[in-house]
Amino acid sequence: MHVTISPSRVSGTARAPPSKSYTHRAILASGYAEEATVHDALWSADTRATARAVELFGGTVTQTSGSTLEVTGFDGTPTVPANVIDCDNSGTTMRLVTATAALADGTTVLTGDSSLRSRPQGPLLEAISHLGGEAFSTRGNGQAPLVVTGPITGERVSIPGDVSSQYISALLMAGAVTDDGLRLDLETELKSAPYVDVTIEVLADFGVEARATDDGFVVDGSQSYAPQSGTYHVPGDFSSISYLAALGALAGDESVTVRGAQSSAQGDTAILDILKAMGAAVDWDRSAGAVTVSRADLEGIEVSVEDTPDLLPTIAVLGAAADGDTYITNAEHVRFKETDRVSAMAEELGKMGVETTEERDSLTIHGSESTLEGATVDGRGDHRIVMSLAVAALLADGPTTIRGAEHVDVSFPGFFDVLEGLGVDLERIESSH
């Protein structure tokens, strides 16, 4: 699907989708449990991949309403899957369930689409091997397809922290149900640290304790997953809130209010501080879970995305509309997402007239030297690229067509419906393939 967006002003109230990060972890944690009900879940392409994996490990996941999932788990003992686990485009699924596969007494094969098969998994495979399992890439390049044979028996392993925090999350979740637990020593500084905080928060809500140490993380063994009263509620997603908040700051006719913004361990709450630093008027009513953002003239700033890689596309668009330069630093790990998001944003915004300077670890947006012109841009098969370009399109001179817009279904299935509800003039065009 392609979407053509005409310049628009927006106002009103929208509801953020549930957090994808929390939903992935809640579905898998419910799989590790005997049974659980997950409320306010994001039921998207990515989270369905995690649900399919839980079922292949011996559980069941039933959607009883639009956002409620009833899960019968495998109770800490995954069975060997009867089929290959297809993680589709979901890197979170692949990494979290690769560690689950290392618990099964037998061999599991995991794969995904072409994008996922290009993403690094090597450090996690090496960790599983060091823990007594067997794990390898069929192509010998640290990328899927992966073959994992368990069960792991080791208690301590070192792992880099600067490639993906999901390796640590995966091992903590699996380590809780091993006999002796796991101690993870970090070889390098941890990037995207808030995502491990999210994992530890979800584990605690399921009655499992994991904690940080001076050298890394530790989780005791022989623990049981059991959420209080058998239920878990997923908070709203601040990665998705970033686009709606940016709409208010850039194209608000008065203001935009986003509901579902509960306090949580999500690092992407940083978008609100970034907007304030750039000059936007932001009010976060934490008790009501509501964020209101009003339009303002923005100024470029320097911002690190070391812990918030998913915000880079949003920040890049804000920078394109700001005075001066917006300098996004500590960004090298953002190149290893669904696409290389550093290059993708530089190239696609470039088509719209935005001047950028791209380096390996940074992206500078020269707002004062840029114009925003309507153009045909490519979503790169990446939901976050699509949504950020949609925000940029509201300010462009003339209509902008975003190719491959259907990829928003990965994390925000109703994104374009929400935009229309806020007043955006858009047209959906079904593509021929």
Question: What does it look like?
Answer:
It is found in: Cytoplasm. This protein has twelve helices and 24 strands. It is an alpha/beta fold and 433 residues long. It folds into two domains: 210 residues, UDP-n-acetylglucosamine1-carboxyvinyl-transferase, Chain (Alpha-beta prism), CATH 3.65.10.10; 214 residues, Enolpyruvate transferase domain (UDP-n-acetylglucosamine1-carboxyvinyl-transferase, Chain). Strands 22-23-1-24 form a four-stranded mixed beta sheet, covered by helices on one side. A four-stranded mixed beta sheet has the order 2-15-17-16.
Q: Any key phrases for this structure?
A:
alpha/beta; UDP-n-acetylglucosamine1-carboxyvinyl-transferase, Chain; 2 domains; four-stranded mixed β-sheet; 12 helices; 24 strands; 30% helix
Q: Give the percentage of residues in beta strands.
A: 15-25%
What's the architecture of the largest domain, going by CATH? Alpha-beta prism
Biggest sheet, in brief?
A: 4 strands, mixed
CATH topology of the largest domain: UDP-n-acetylglucosamine1-carboxyvinyl-transferase, Chain
| C-alpha-based Rg, rounded | 21 Å
Arithmetic mean of pLDDT:
96
CATH class of the largest domain: Alpha Beta
Query: How many beta-strand segments?
Result: 24
Strand order of the largest sheet: 22-23-1-24
What's the CATH H-level homologous superfamily of the largest domain?
A: Enolpyruvate transferase domain
Tally of individual helices = 12
Q: How far is the N terminus from the C terminus?
A: 9 Å
Low-pLDDT segments, ≥5 res: none
- Global shape: globular
Q: What structural category do the secondary elements indicate?
A: alpha/beta
